[in-house]
Amino acid sequence: MQSTGRHLGFLARGAELTAAACALSLVGSVFMGALVAIARTSASALLRRIAFVYVDLFRNVPFIVQLFFFYYGLPELGIYIDAFTTGVVALSIAGGAYASDIIRAGILAIDQGIIDAAEVSGLSRRKIFTRIVLPIALRTSVRPLGSVLINMILTSSILSTITLNELTGSAQIVVSQTYRPFEVYMVLLCAYAALTYLVSLGVTLLHRHLNRDMMEAVD
Q: Which residues contact 70 (CB under 8 A, 6 or more apart)?
């Protein structure tokens, strides 16, 4: 275990890289998900069809295939992206497909009376959507979006296959140097469990804070 202990700093840097990649990917996923959710609730049949194809494609293709396409396939077209950026882009696009369903459900769940009241007050449809509908949908989607983030943390371990030394990639390097797979992967197991637990706790607290007024109204 002492041999593994000397490499904890290296594993910690890998954990920091995992956290950074997932944080950026969450932002990208929510942005992509919001755009696709807007398209899927649009009056335009073309936009709805494009959004459907996007969601259907990226939810039904293994993430590792998507990742390899971006990292190994795009260079054939003269497009070169470093491993970290590729990982963030791939996670964002894949996560956006799941986030879109969540945000769309949040939009459709909004009481029509709220929208009618906003229309009566003279707000344009654009302002109603950007100032009322979307904020409410995002607020009520915090918990399921938290599940997307947790899944993203777990999926990020696949980024080690494109030479990115995130948490899993760092662990593989330590194993190759120490020949102590049991201890290293035990640390890795605990690290992922701790990350997902902290995210779950943070999401629960954020959900309670954002929806405090609703909970008080129910009580």
A: 81, 86, 89, 90
Residue 167's CB is within 10 A of a number of other CB atoms, namely 27
Provide DSSP, the chain: -HHHHTTHHHHHHHHHHHHHHHHHHHHHHHHHHHHHHHHHTSS-HHHHHHHHHHHHHHHSS-HHHHHHIIIIIGGGGT----HHHHHHHHHHHHHHHHHHHHHHHHHHTS-HHHHHHHHHTT--HHHHIIIIIHHHHHHHTHHHHHHHHHHHHHHGGGGGGGT--SHHHHHHHHHHHH--HHHHHHHHHHHHHHHHHHHHHHHHHHHHHHTHHHHHHH-
Residue with tokens 């929510």: 30
Which tens digits make up the pLDDT trace of 182-199? 999 999 999 999 999 999
- 124: left (phi > 0), else alpha (psi -120 to 50), else beta? beta
Greatest Cα pair distance, the chain, in angstroms, is 70
Hey, what's the torsion of the CAs at 21, 26, 29, 34, to 10 degrees?
-160
| CA–CA dist 206, 219 (Å, integer) | 19
Model pTM?
0.89
